[in-house]
Amino acid sequence: MALSVLAMPALGAPSLNAQERSSHYLYLGHWAYRYVDLLMARGHLPDLQPMVRPYRRLDVAMALANARSSGGLAESEIEWVELLQAELAPELLGRQLADSATVVVYGGAEVGAQVLTQRHRDMFRPEGDEAAFGHLQLAGALDFPGVTAALRLRYDGWLINDPQFPDGKVVEEHPNFLGLLDFAARAEDGYAEVQLPYVRLMAGRMQRNWGPPRTEGLLVSDYSYSYDQIGYRIGSTRLAVTGFVAQLDEFPDFTKRWFAAHRLDWRVNDGLALGFGESVIWGGENRSFDFRMAMPIATWFVGGYGKDWEEGPNRNNSFIDLSVWWKPTAKIVTTAAVMFDDFPGGGSPLAHGVDLGLALPSLSSRLGLRIGYAQVGALTYRTVSEYERYAFRGIGLGRDLADFDRLSVELDWVPTSSLFLTPTVQVLRRGEGDFRDPWPAGVTNDGPVLFIGERETTLRLALRGQWIPRRLFWIDWDVGENLVWSAGHVPGQRANEFVGRLRVSLVANAWGKL
Q: How far is residue 10 from each of residues 6, 177, 197, 237, measured CA to CA in Å?
């Protein structure tokens, strides 16, 4: 890894504009990612790493400009690029500025409402009554020469009605300034980052997702609410090390715990990207911060720093991940990510996660197909000690579900540039294992463990999509029918339920230069 870093200047240096300008990040969950994913699968954005997100807004803008200038875009793809470039107009302005000392200022607001048939974020785990919530988002950023700072505040009724939290409260509710309504808000993003040509150093709060496009990462995903961290990126567009260190929620009796993750990504060529990642959780009563776990240029697994089989005060919970994004032909993309929690041996079972994908992104000019299969073992993420649990406030740092496999077939249909439809068929098979439960006693199987207890099977027929009739107005939805066998893990019990959500948003943005 150290030799790779020394070789970075020869493996794809940033362009002059990327060196001169800093840029804040396109937050995860933004509508633009659907179009970015489809254009990337079609081979038009080779300068973006497919497995590590979020992207800097300037990097996306530059990749789109390069794709536009290449002359290889179909008419429909030009429409998608124009839609994205309208969203990224501030970055295009910053890229064209001759004076690199100029500061670009951004401000934005989003207001709207959403209607839910239930209150769980996972459509396969409906819970709670139907509801309607308002939401408000305020965002701002300053892109200085070499430094960027951003803040995104979110008010959402869901933050005091999430069934995965005690009493549904992600945050404490407070009366608003009129004293009439309960007001629930949190900072989803808030960070400052120094951005040099080959190094970025970040401190603050940010959501990340490390995995194939349109899936939740096995090591690091955006399902968990964002948390405070110190992060870094060392490298170029072709070869980079990315990582962060975070202090998670604390336990009584002076028990603290920390989470660190890093990964090496190599974009071998325009059609192949490889990745190797690690993560580790450590802590305990009166245990101090361990600097070895924060080393970016090190391999914890080989170095023995993350041996989760050790007993006593040095016990840790470590994971490794291997991933590949491969485009063997112009019309096929394959992805694979494999994570290992524990290896078999000495009576310890295999604890694993797998995510496989096959995409045919160019069935026609406006139609693509994606097939995916994911599996997480029953004992994956599960630990003996509570402070080693792979979760933040009880929500999974990687997948929030274990003891399952899922097959997905999805169409990406873009009949017009502003309408993105995704008809979906998914089958989820789920055992009774839960990584929040203690490690079961007497487990000696050397192979993988899957489907503990009665297996529940859910067939979901759904239509996801988004519509942007005007740049300042957009709608997105995920609606469908869940057909469940052995519902609630009760043999022979059947259940059919319509599960969905619909969100409407009005958006206003402004930017300028100082």
A: 9, 56, 13, 11
Mapped onto helix, strand or coil, the DSSP state of residue 64 is helix
SS3 90: helix
Contacts of residue 6, Cβ cutoff 8 Å, sequence gap at least 6: none
Inter-residue contact 373 to 356 (CB < 8 Å): yes
Q: If pLDDT is split at 50, 70 and 90, which confidence band does 396 have?
A: very high
Instruction: Evaluate if residue 442 carries a pLDDT over 80.
Output: no
Q: Which of 312, 306, 277 is nearest to 292 (CA)?
A: 306
The whole-number average pLDDT for the span 188-206 is: 95
Closest CA to 133 of 507, 509, 504: 504
The domain total for the chain is: 1
Determine what percent of the chain is predicted with pLDDT higher than 90: 63
In the three-class reduction of DSSP (H, G, I as helix; E, B as strand; rest coil), residue 148 is classed as strand
Residue 157 CA: distances (Å) to CA of 224, 454, 477? 17, 35, 17
Q: How confident is the model at residue 91 (pLDDT cuts 50, 70, 90)?
A: confident
Q: Which of 362, 358, 332 is nearest to 74 (CA)?
A: 362
- Would you say residue 279 has pLDDT above 60? yes
Query: DSSP secondary-structure letter at 83?
Result: H
Tokens at residue 27, please? 């937050």
Domain that holds residue 436: 2-513
Query: Which ranges of 16-71 does DSSP label H, i.e. alpha helix?
Result: 16-20, 32-41, 57-70
> Is a pLDDT exceeding 50 seen at residue 15?
no
